[in-house]
Design brief:
Elements lengths: L1 H20 L3 H14 L6 H21 L10 H25 L4 H12 L3 H10 L6 H24 L5 H34 L3 H21 L4 H11 L5 H27 L5 H28 L4 H10 L5 H12 L5 H21 L2 H10 L20 E4 L3 H12 L4 E5 L2 H9 L3 E4 L5 H6 L7 E4 L4 H11 L6 E5 L2 H9 L3 E4 L5 H12 L10
Parallel strand pairs: 1-2, 1-4, 2-3, 4-5, 5-6
Helix pairs in contact: 1-2, 1-11, 2-11, 3-10, 3-11, 3-14, 4-5, 4-7, 4-12, 5-14, 6-7, 7-8, 7-13, 8-10, 9-10, 12-13, 12-15, 13-16, 14-15, 17-22
Length: about 525
Amino acid sequence: MLTVLYIMLAASLGLAAARWLRVPGVPLLLVGGIGLKSTGLLPDEGLLRDALMLGLAFLVFFAGTELNPSRVGRQKRAACIVGLAQFLLIGVIGAGVVLLLGYELGTALYMGLALSASSTLVVVSLLRSRQQFFEPFGRLVLGVLLLQDILVVVALGGLSGVEGGLLGVGEGLGKTLVLIVMAVACQKWITPWLIVKLDLDEESLLLMVMAILFAFIGASVWLGLPLVVGAFLAGVSLSGFPSNGMVRGQLNSLADFFQAVFFVSLGASLVWLTPYEFALAALLTVMVIVLTPPLVIAVSRRIGLSSRVGTESGLLVAQCSEFSLIVVLLATAQGHIDERMFHIMAVVTVVTMVLTPFYATDRLTWQLMRLRLSRSPDRPTFGLSERPHDHILLLGCGSNGRHVLPRLKESGRRVLVVDDDPGIVDQLKREGVEAIRGDGADYMVLRDAGARQARVIISTMRRISDNERLLRFTWEANVPVLLRTFDAEAAEQLAILGALPVIESEIAADATLRWIDERLGAAKEPSTTT
């Protein structure tokens, strides 16, 4: 029990120090675990490994609570194609690299599986902090994560019966599918009904959540499956509305604590790598970071998504997952691979997780977009006979854009819509609206859409950074730009750059339409050059 006490003490101190210093906690927690091991206070290696698996079980449970299939929206098909392509290609390439370096086929296959999935915890944390959950690429990424996690869970279920040959693998897959069906049923009907019907207070709600978690873990162990399979599916069962929103506040502090326990346990489990093992870890790290973005970009462009969506998605999923460690841990426990491979995979996972926020940025996204890594760039000729002039330019045609579009068409001026969703563009063209596919923050798209020659620009783009790029592009042309914002601080920031911001919480759609009418003035009079 002293081992558990020391781990929890180190986790608490590391988490407190990280918050006090306002630095990422993972490096401090890993150093704390390494320091704890160096003191010789952790003699029980088995208990240490159990603590690591316990931390992983809670991490995948928290990850599962964020993966509500309904959040993927219209990106389901794209998420399935992109997620499956990344999963298979990165897995095959990783397994091939390990095999070429002289390792056995079984080891190569386990390592390929470990490399194939991306971290739900890292990606969801970044999407939430950047308020990008409901952007097209955010929905795509959430769908990719859900698909890949399910694939790994199914694989773990099959591998749990590998000792029984093909029959044992089939039995393990069948049991896993039963648990998946149970989780989906709970997510859709049972847990939302329980939470609403019982009207629990905070303490009772937390107890119910823990009861669901342990029920799924118990079912998983009873079926002979790894406990992390049940833990993840318990999270999925709580991911629906209103369950997710109500339990998130109860779980945030627990998530932070068990994440700290996990990384301390991981640091205490690590050993020094040999130069050859370190080189292999570095090679696999570079492979994941360098190959994932262009692969995702190529697949995304192939199915009609914009380069912006593909590039942002590719950078965001270019890391290994918490499931990566589970795969190699279970393979090591079953004696299928050498324990040294766990340490190699741990280094790859931690390094890629820690580096993700530094390369998954807007700046690198635009740099890669300028390279035009795909063969079919976003800057087509648009089929326009000439560059538009003295027109109304609408950037983004989601629900807000759809609302104002009829009034814009009534003005009698030429209306041009730019949207990066090919489905929306096709629908607008069928309705007789002039529309082109492109990114409203891309300077080349703005130039070809005649942004500097427009009478009025109306932007429904959500990101402040995108609207700032638009305003910088049109600054010298002095084109009136109406755009939506979500808070007064953002509105003030954009107004300094010359925008006419509309705060959604303070103004109704009718007021927006009145502004447009006033700005256009006598819309049907002969146009003048702005």
